[in-house]
């Protein structure tokens, strides 16, 4: 059993000695003494206490001032106040400042021990609650980053380690390995978790627009700047900015980003003044940035600023033992999203999934399983439901033979039906059946997407 720690604060040396001698054996605790509020704050900053027992009337910083400062920085801390000048007004004031209890001197020793035991029980409950919250939070953070392999356990440990720092992080890995999920996990486990998380998909934003999106602009900075606009750096203030696929950013933008990292300030377009920003930067890439440095398309100094804490995500083919676990996780998640009864993967299909090379990694595996959910008629998804019977290159595929037996137009239509059901089905699953958001994500006009959905009888209501 861990020894409980109590801090006693009083300007009377005799009272401190008396309380230490009597409380340590009766409460089975370790008592630390402080003769002033200033000394008490120093102790609190250096370690955790299950309970603080503080006198109100002290020279210099009195007990109420101490209480206020402790509760400001450590709101969960349990504090009991004591005084030889008891009054209802003083008790109310102490409670308003966050005291758990109020004890008047002189006090009966047995009554004091009983009330302090209750205060310690409160501290124990709070600590257990915080522990459970942390476990739940960690479990939620990693819910889509699935894996029991040794290489993934190292990734999880690295995420926990870097989350506790303020340094920049560079996440590398092939497309579909979970770079965005990793960035979100780092943010969620960090001290910035209550702040904003702002992702930027760099390749999808043209260079001339990316600069104004990142840094903002003043009214009149360019032709269509009809009003002031804050940039993504300001939106991410006190939080995290995730620069996805940073390898596609031009050298000109790299230079501006390097300046922000170094100086922690931005200058909106058309503005003469700079604005300080408190932002942690996490970036990702599926490219070899060292090769781009040799080619002269990526700044070396910018790379080293980004790569302070690197995380490399392994491709799926290098952790095949995780595939059954990932597949079952994806299956349960999308059966729920698609309002389908929970299905299973046949042993033969699972065997084929483990064998496949998965060039698109987890994202490709997810697409295949979504197809299986949508196209399977029974409770168990078979290889034929997703059009694979064996690895490509190992022989003829019965699904291909079936298509070749059909007239060209019918075979083409069947493939289009399969593709649109899987592709649009995933979009609608991700957006909760919101057609407007789905259209925006895939780059189509809303009316165009609705037309395709009508043609292939895809109902948005099934995904809500």
Automatic annotation (TrEMBL):
Q: Where is the Response regulatory domain?
A: 5-120
User: Record keywords: Repeat included?
Assistant: no
GO MF annotation list? ATP binding; sequence-specific DNA binding
Q: List membrane-spanning regions.
A: none
Q: Does the keyword Transcription regulation apply?
A: yes
A single BP term in Gene Ontology = phosphorelay signal transduction system
Please state every residue range assigned to the domain named Sigma-54 factor interaction: 145-374
Q: Name one Pfam family in it.
A: AAA_lid_14
User: Where 4-aspartylphosphate occurs, residue numbers?
Assistant: 55
Highest taxon of the lineage: Bacteria
Name the keywords, alphabetized.
ATP-binding, Nucleotide-binding, Phosphoprotein, Transcription, Transcription regulation, Two-component regulatory system
Q: What is this protein called?
A: Putative two component, sigma54 specific, transcriptional regulator
- What's the source species for this entry? Desulfococcus multivorans DSM 2059
């Amino acid at each position: 059993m861990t020894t409980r720690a109590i801090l006693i604060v009083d300007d009377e040396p005799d009272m401190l000695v008396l309380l230490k001698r009597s409380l340590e054996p009766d409460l089975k605790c370790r008592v630390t003494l402080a003769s002033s509020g200033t000394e008490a704050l120093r102790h609190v900053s250096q370690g955790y206490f299950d309970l603080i027992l503080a006198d109100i009337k002290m020279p210099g910083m009195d007990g109420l001032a101490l209480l206020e400062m402790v509760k400001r920085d450590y709101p969960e801390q349990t504090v009991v106040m004591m005084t030889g000048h008891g009054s209802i007004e003083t008790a109310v004031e102490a409670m308003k400042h966050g005291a758990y209890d109020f004890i008047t001197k002189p006090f009966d020793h047995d009554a004091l021990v009983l009330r302090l035991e209750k205060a310690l029980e409160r501290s124990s409950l709070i600590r257990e609650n915080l522990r459970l919250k942390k476990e739940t939070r960690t479990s939620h953070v990693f819910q889509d980053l699935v894996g029991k392999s040794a290489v993934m356990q190292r990734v999880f440990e690295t995420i926990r380690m870097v989350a506790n720092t303020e340094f920049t992080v560079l996440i590398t890995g092939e497309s579909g390995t979970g770079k965005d999920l990793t960035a979100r996990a780092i943010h969620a486990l960090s001290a910035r978790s209550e702040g904003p998380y702002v992702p930027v998909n760099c390749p999808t934003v043209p260079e001339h627009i990316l600069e104004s999106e990142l840094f903002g602009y003043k009214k009149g900075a360019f032709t269509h700047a009809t009003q002031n606009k804050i940039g993504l750096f300001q939106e991410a203030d006190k939080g995290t900015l995730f620069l996805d696929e940073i390898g596609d950013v031009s050298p000109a933008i790299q230079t501006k980003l390097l300046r922000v990292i170094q100086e922690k300030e931005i200058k909106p377009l058309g503005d003469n003044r700079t604005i300080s920003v408190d932002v942690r930067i996490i970036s990702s890439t599926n490219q070899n940035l060292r090769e781009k440095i040799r080619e002269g398309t990526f700044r070396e100094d910018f790379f080293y600023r980004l790569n302070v804490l690197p995380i490399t995500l392994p491709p799926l083919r290098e952790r095949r033992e995780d595939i059954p676990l990932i597949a079952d996780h994806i299956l349960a998640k999308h059966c729920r999203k698609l309002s389908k009864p929970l299905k299973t993967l046949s042993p033969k299909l699972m065997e084929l999934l483990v064998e496949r090379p998965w060039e698109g990694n987890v994202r490709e595996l997810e697409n295949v399983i979504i197809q299986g959910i949508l196209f399977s008629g029974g409770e168990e998804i078979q290889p034929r439901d997703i059009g694979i019977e064996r690895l490509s290159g190992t022989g003829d595929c019965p699904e291909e033979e079936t298509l070749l037996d059909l007239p060209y137009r019918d075979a083409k239509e069947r493939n289009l039906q399969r593709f649109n059901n899987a592709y649009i089905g995933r979009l609608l699953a991700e957006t909760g059946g919101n057609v407007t958001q789905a259209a925006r994500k895939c780059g189509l006009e809303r009316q165009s997407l609705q037309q395709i959905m009508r043609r292939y009888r895809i109902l948005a209501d099934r995904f809500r």
